[in-house]
Amino acid sequence: MDKPNILYIMVDHQIYYRHGWDFGPKIRRDNFEEFALSGVNFTRAYSSNPLCGPTRRCVLTGLYSHHHGEILNDVNVPFSEKTYLDILTENGYRNYYYGKWHAGNGTALEHGCEGYCYPSYGNPYLTPEYQNYLKEYDLPKPKIKIECTMDPWRLDIKPGEIYVQDKEWTNEEASGILLTPKETHEAFFLADMACKRLENIKKEENRNPFSLRLDFWGPHAPYFVTQEYADMYPPEDIPKYPTFDSAQLEKPSCYRKEHNLGIADNEGNLIYPNPIPWEKWQLLLSRCYAHSTMVDDAVGIVIRKLRELGLDENTLIIWTADHGDAIACQGGKFDKASYMVEEVMRVPLAMSYKGVIKPKQVTDALVSNLDIPTTILSAAGLSFDYEPDGKNLLEMEASGFKKRRKFFVSETYGHIERNVAKSLVTSRYKYTVNKEDISELYDLALDPYETRNLIFSESHLTLKNELDEILKNWVKEEKDNFFDGDSDYILNEFLSKGTSKPRDY
């Protein structure tokens, strides 16, 4: 078989775990669900880190953040290893990248790619490419009527006002109604660029395979959606999230840290009970759910175009997210932080490859977005010039998922708050060690919302010790410094390698 083409789709901050699973409205992701039927749907996929920057470096290198060094957002540790993009380019692939970068130094254009990519987080609405897109389709500049805002960045966005996204980065922690056509949203702008590239690829009839990476800014906040999507989720139909009223007892202090206005006190602590009435949270969740559906529709345009052009016949397609969304969970949070709850760590992940991956498969094997670059290179008959941390999902699938992990480890180095932690998950349990704070142990089968920390349970002491031994052995094998010193020592060792220092560090 010829080397496959690659279509790799990554959305940002995908609300996924538990919302609509047990009660309340199901979040419509019709395009993802339809796509997942064409291959394998991984229902126990984890992110390697709860933050964008570290995870995005992981999915370029196949390495954990304790190996690649980009441990926080915008540390900008120089790339010391080749990314999978570099390797594909060196081996004859036509490499294209459209969308968000936020993986540290530079952009994808410095790793052998053509396309559309700006440094750091970025704001697509300010770019000349977006302005030209509006002119081409005679679209107005997007305008939003703001409904709710947490505004931790002091952007002076007020409910009721008409807002234009003209800030340096499109990370407004707010929700509202997009008054202009849905095509003015960045997701449809990116989808349009990707479709045009696919059309050009078809016309060129170049024998070299292509790799197309598409990174959306959504469904990360701001949750700005058109009325048609907002109407899909009446706020009054959304029941209170099970951990919304949780007092965060017997939890590490990172659960009680908060920076969003309205729910945080002057010392940066989450106010309990949550001071924002549930009716407002219902509105926020309505727009959050709608944003997920809106981005899903934009991705669907690209997949349909690929099939329409007949380019899916020898193409590995992967669709996932960098991490999840903590909205309304564990005391009523907004965004996410360094706590490694399932709502943040679990991500959707599906993969198809005609003639190689059998359709309509569903597996609960422990996998991660960390595995994707290794999988892509394997499909192309290539490999990293170092030993990656990620596994080959194609090999796992070919074994009928008999080859699978017994456990997976995620890690964090904090976000606003200082917190260094490792989280180990098995098929049933979750064990998290937080440096200089209490550890966590949950039975995910009996307690999927992580309401009861079993770390102090005498009846679970043997289990805790077993999981602790597994984690210590893993850290030793990884040559990680997690147990070598306190958090300050570990953080300073990593941050000294970066070219910028994150806020509050």
TrEMBL record:
Which domain of life does the UniProt lineage start with?
Answer: Bacteria
Q: Does the keyword Signal apply?
A: no
Q: Which residue ranges does the record assign to the Sulfatase N-terminal domain?
A: 4-381
- Pfam families, alphabetized: Sulfatase (PF00884)
Which SUPFAM superfamilies does the entry link to? Alkaline phosphatase-like
What's in the keyword line of the UniProt record?
Answer: Calcium, Hydrolase, Metal-binding
By its UniProt entry, which PROSITE patterns does this protein fall under? SULFATASE_1
Q: Which GO terms describe its molecular function?
A: arylsulfatase activity; metal ion binding
Q: Which InterPro entries match?
A: Alkaline_phosphatase_core_sf, Sulfatase, Sulfatase_CS, Sulfatase_N
Q: Which PANTHER family match?
A: ARYLSULFATASE FAMILY MEMBER, ENDO-4-O-SULFATASE
> What family does the Swiss-Prot or TrEMBL record give for this protein?
Belongs to the sulfatase family.
Name by which UniProt lists this protein: Sulfatase-like hydrolase/transferase
The organism encoding this protein is Mediterraneibacter hominis
Origin organism lineage: Bacteria, Bacillati, Bacillota, Clostridia, Lachnospirales
